[in-house]
Amino acid sequence: MGITILGIESSCDDTAAAIIEDGFLLSSRIAGQEVHKQYGGVVPELASRAHQQNIVPVVDMALKDAFKSRDEISAVAFTKGPGLLGSLLVGASFAKGFALACNIPLIDVNHLQAHVLANFIQKKEQTKILPEFPFLCLLISGGHTQLVIVKDYLDMKIIGQTIDDAAGEAFDKCAKVMGLPYPGGPVIDKYAKLGNPSAYQFSKPRIKNLDFSFSGLKTSFLYFLRDRLRENKNFINDHQYDICASIQKAIVDILIAKLVKASLETGITEIAIAGGVAANSDLRNRLSDEAQQRKWRIFFPEFHYSTDNAAMIAITGYYKFLHNEFASLDISPSARFSI
Ligand code: KG4
Ligand code: ZN
Known about the structure:
α4 (167-177) packs parallel to α6 (215-231), α4 packs antiparallel against α8 and α8 (240-266) runs parallel beside α9 (281-294). The two termini are 32 Å apart. It is built from 10 helices and 10 strands. The protein has a 5-stranded mixed sheet with strand order 3-2-1-4-5, with helices on both faces. By secondary structure, it is α/β, with parallel strands linked by helices. It has 2 domains: 4-121 and 305-322, 2-Layer Sandwich (Nucleotidyltransferase, domain 5); 135-300, Nucleotidyltransferase, domain 5. α9 (281-294) links the parallel β9 (270-274) and β10. The protein has helices spanning 44-65, 85-102, 111-117, 167-177, 184-192, 215-231, 235-238, 240-266, 281-294, 311-322, and strands spanning 4-9, 15-21, 24-31, 75-81, 106-110, 135-140, 145-152, 155-161, 270-274, 297-299. The structure holds 5'-O-[(R)-(carboxyoxy)(hydroxy)phosphoryl]adenosine (KG4) and zinc ion (ZN).
């Protein structure tokens, strides 16, 4: 019999379950939470309540899609953190109950490692080329922006990270001041396609090492809008597409410049991206061009495995299973911890 892992993800506002068998994805389900849209950001209390409502049906659907019953699951993997504590607790408690009821091992997964390993998600019928170790991964999500050397599935080293906001946060905060809905990244991505990326310029950080900073850009964006709105109170509406294209270009410029620097410094040309911002279409297009010029092999997770999902938790659980890395039933989730 194969190794069949049920993965559970509940670190923020997506309740997700997925099944991986022998390293191949059988099913992946996600229940999003519309409730936060009206607040312009995730409300932790509402998120954990929605996870409680969604987790049983989502796991049920993932099992059904995979044509698996509970007694065919070898182990259950769950997100230990980082994330919102109340949300993490729902996934962790469910996973513990499932492991106890089915008498199978429990596996704790680092959400950030899982984003990186999303690059290994594949279906049986796919002939996907996978990254080879060591590779360089730009991990860009709503809470994190890191450059990571991935030495092996479970052996990763951070060589640069943000000193203030994360890349996803920069997208979300800029969208918010423009009055766009949360999460702002996908909306900016969509509007930017219709605009001119060179219409407006914003200040760039001057950090010499491999760390990132987005707070200066955010402030420069805020002052820019304030000044333009003084001249024309409809400035945002009148120039929405150009503003989105220009701020997106500024964020993507920062990301690509550091990735190039990291590749030159480490000599690694096997390059992957991961995390919600890795879904950005401009970043993907420009990285593909960069890869051609610089002779990089470049890897992206499929769009729906860039943002939060449980397939990445299940694949990480699978590699931990192979390494005999299990958790005890008294394990607690952690809101903060590193890769
Ligand atoms: O990885 P993720 O789903 O959750 C975290 O672990 O944080 O990342 C969410 C972030 C949000 O900030 C969202 O705006 C951003 O990813 N995002 C995007 C796009 N899709 C999601 N940012 C830019 N372009 C996108 N297409
Ligand atoms: Zn995430």
